[in-house]
Amino acid sequence: MSDISYSPLTEYTAGVTARLARLRRQLAAWFWIEGLGRVLWLALAVFAADLVLDWLFRMDRAQRAVMLALMLAALGWAIHCWLIRPLSLAVSDDALALQVEAANHRLGQRLISALQLARVSNAESRGMSPLLVRQAVVSGVQMAQEVSFANVLDARRFRQNMLLLFAALLLFGFLTAAALAAAPLRIWFNRNLLLGSATWPQKTYLVVERVGEDGAVVFPRGEDWTQVVSVRPDSQVMPQAVYLDFRRTRSRSPLAMKKTAERQFEATFASVIEPFEFRARGGDAITDWVRVELVEQPAVSELKMTVTPPKYTGGQSEELAPGRGPYYLLKGSELSIAATANKPLARAALVIDGKRTAIDLLNPLHFSAAVTAANLVPGQYVIDLEDMLGLTSRRPTVFGLRIRVDREPRVRVRLIGVSGMVVPQARIPFACRVTDDFGLTAVGVNYRWKGDDVAQPDGQGSLTFEQLQGPLGSARVGQPSNLPDLAFDDAIELAPLKIPTGTGFSFRFEAADNDDISGPNTGRSSEFLVRIVTEEELRTDLLRREKEQRQEFERLLKSQEDLVTDSRAFEAATKTQASLQAEQKDQLTQYQKRQKLVGQNVAAIAERMAAIVIEVQNNRLEEEGGRLQTRLTEEIVKPMQSVADELIPEALAALDRTRRQSESPTDRAATQAEAIRLQTETAARMKEILEHMVKAEGFQEAVNLLYEIQKAQTEVNDQTNKARQERIKRILEGAVP
Questions:
Q1: d(CA 693, CA 632)
Q2: What is the residue-averaged pLDDT of the chain?
Q3: Residue 360 banded pLDDT, cuts 50, 70, 90
Q4: How far apart are CA 591 and CA 658, in angstroms?
């Protein structure tokens, strides 16, 4: 018997194993149906609760996002608990066999025993009878074939789960179709699943203006900002008031907005320096929270302005220092502007006295502009910028321009050696200095004279100077002159002008610059006026002035003699004193001052007498080196200058030494004697000069008298000749003599 061949035990249990695998698949389907049904019904419940909450409380985007996260979390938990975890558990054949035996009590433990014994190999080595093992396996398999494995599952509950799943699917399908047609579901889907901006049906709709796609509005940092909230036209009810609520900022109560139009409300935020969020509410409308982002306003971070002066100035382009305005520019100048902004720009403009001119953008950060000479006007210049967000510069870059006038040339003239009276053949020497900002083109003299009666007609004209042809030659042929400074000495010759005596001759110097924009500008000196007189009249006036100087010199001589007398009296009074007292020192100081004043006045008289000599030369009263000039120069002017420049300074020094040696009687006496000697010599020299002045006056009076006699003789001869001619005329015409 032991040699009989048997089939493996696993072949007997193969059918049971297949039936258990089919039961395992049925169990998985049962889990799927029950789990999906539960998940779908939970989703429906959660969605319904979310719809009700959002309908009642009008949740904002953040709150809806939180609710969406909670719903997804709940559904995830349900899927994990009701689907993933049950389906992930591996149910063994033994476990299923035990469940089958539990459902079929008559099996006892035959099924589990058959499955386990069938897996045993080499039962005999384990002390088991192979025949009994086989018999137990066959018996268990046969018994299992008589029962149904499906009764392990609760069929009634399975049908319920199927119905619930089917109902949930139908309801989901219905709601999905309704969401396309029904506004509430469509709005809920947009708001709570897509987190869109759809709103629930309401009577009032508010719109926060200037909100970007990212749900933020941009405020300029540190500046005031006016926020506008509008009421949509489809609103049925116009709210009486609109309020702004705030969050993510320091405690700030709701702000009531000001109604500025029928459908517009405004609120101004002052000096915003930190970001925050706000929303508007009014009527039954509540907007989403709007995030405030702070940005810098567009501004000029670097500015370079270059001015090019007119060509006639010969100047180079110059860069203006920013912030140092107003800038003074010459008319005809051109201005170029190059600037860099602190952020990308959309556009830029230059506003000149209210007139707006667009500026070319080289790129979003750099721009340039040019103001031509024709458009350069005085006033305020404003650089207005606008960035990509539409923000404009609240504090634009402003600079002022002023038109700087090209001043006319400054002409300074000094006449040399002439007074208010000149003779017709005189020359008028002068020293002229002309300065201009940029360049000179012409310098000359305009003159005119006016007679006293009809017999002396008026005249006028102009003079130029040959010595200026070289320095101003380039300007005269149309080339820009770069000679801004000119100094020259010359003389006006009156003889060629043939000015009659007895007339007033006035003249002034004029200079023109090279301004070819608004000029040329003409500068003028002060007007000079002289009287054209006869030689006799001029000599008489010179004699009068000479007498005045002689009288003044006589007064100075008297002062010098008094000073000598006082010095000698002081010497006698202090001769025996060991030292000088304070009052006596002060007395010496007074003597010094008196002596110094005499010297200054003598020098002044010498200068005036020298001017008379020069005036004689300029009026050509005599030849160069004539008697009058020599007499005045050698006998009066030079001796006076010697007294003022030599004797009197020595006397002053001696008086000073006397005062300083007040404590030494011997030295003081010597220096005082020296001072008195010099003072006495000064007085003597002055007497000599005065004698020459008196003689000169007598000589000049004689000369003048001779000129008067000569003039009278000339007049008599003229009258005699005139009478003779008239008589001859009458005789020739046949008149009775």
A1: 8
A2: 83
A3: confident
A4: 11
Average pLDDT for residues 690-711, to the nearest whole number?
A: 65
pTM: 0.57
List beta partners, residue 366. 340, 363
Q: Which of 525, 539, 507 is nearest to 421 (CA)?
A: 539
Distance CA 414, CA 611 (A): 14
Q: Residue 657 has which token pair? A: 């030494």
Dist. CA 568–CA 155, nearest whole Å: 164
- Cβ-count burial of 615 within 10 angstroms (0-12 exposed, 13-18 middle, 19+ buried)? buried
Q: How confident is the model at residue 98 (pLDDT cuts 50, 70, 90)?
A: confident
Give the residue with greater pLDDT, 403 vs 57.
403
- Residue found under tokens 């820009």: 480
| Residue 543: CB atoms within 10 Å | 17
Give the closest residue to 27 by CA, choosing from 160, 152, 157, 145. 152
Please report the DSSP string for 486-520 in residue order. EEEEEEEESGGGTPPTT-EEEEEEEEEE---SS--
Per the CB < 8 A criterion, the answer to whether 241 and 315 are in contact is no
What is the spatial distance between Cα 725 and Cα 719, in angstroms, rounded to a whole number? Answer: 10
- For the segment 99-128, what is each residue's pLDDT rounded down to a tens digit? 777 777 777 777 777 777 677 777 666 667
Tokens of 286: 């509540």
Predicted local distance difference test score (pLDDT) of residue 478:
41
**Interatomic CA distance for residues 392 and 273, integer angstroms:** 18
Secondary structure of residue 284 in the 3-state scheme: coil
Q: Is the pLDDT of residue 737 over 50?
A: no
Which one-letter amino acid corresponds to residue 326?
A: P
- Amino acid found at 49: A
Report the run of H or E that residue 286 belongs to, with start and end.
Answer: strand 285-286
pLDDT at 376: 85
3-state DSSP assignment of residue 307: strand
Q: Respond yes or no on whether the N-terminal peptide bond of residue 378 is cis (omega within 30° of 0).
A: no
pLDDT above 60 for 706: no
| ∠ CA 36-40-44, rounded to 5° | 170
Return the bridge partners of 361, or none: 367
Taking the domain 300-404, which CATH number applies? Answer: 2.60.40.10
202-295: which CATH topology?
A: Immunoglobulin-like (2.60.40)
Structure confidence by residue, pLDDT tens digits, 170-220: 888 887 777 667 777 788 888 888 888 787 888 888 999 988 877 888 888
Strand order in the sheet with 258-261: 206-208, 225-231, 264-269, 258-261
CB 462 within 8 A of CB 447: yes
How many CB atoms lie under 10 A from the CB of residue 617? Answer: 20
Q: How far is CA 503 from CA 449, 458, 459, 495, 508, in A?
A: 6, 9, 10, 14, 17
Q: Distances in Å between the alpha carbon of 374 and those of 39, 332, 438?
A: 82, 7, 21
pLDDT of the residue at 353: 78
Return the residue matching tokens 């009989």.
4
Q: How many CB atoms lie within 10 A of CB 733?
A: 7
pLDDT digits (tens, 9 = 90+) for 463-485: 888 777 666 654 443 444 567 78
pLDDT band at 266 (very low <50, low <70, confident <90, very high): very high
Closest CA to 637 of 701, 548, 549, 544: 549
410-533 folds as Immunoglobulin-like (2.60.40)
Virtual CA dihedral for 293, 297, 302, 306, nearest 10 degrees?
A: 160
Helix, strand, coil percent content, the chain, rounded in steps of 5: 50, 25, 30
Which residues does 506 contact at the CB level (< 8 Å), separation at least 6? 447, 448, 449, 450, 527, 528, 529, 530
Q: Other C-beta atoms within 10 Å of 169: how many?
A: 13
Would you state the structure tokens that stand for residue 185, as one six-digit string? 């579901």
Q: Mind spelling out the 3-state secondary structure of 565-588?
A: HHHHHHHHHHCCCCCCCHHHHHHH
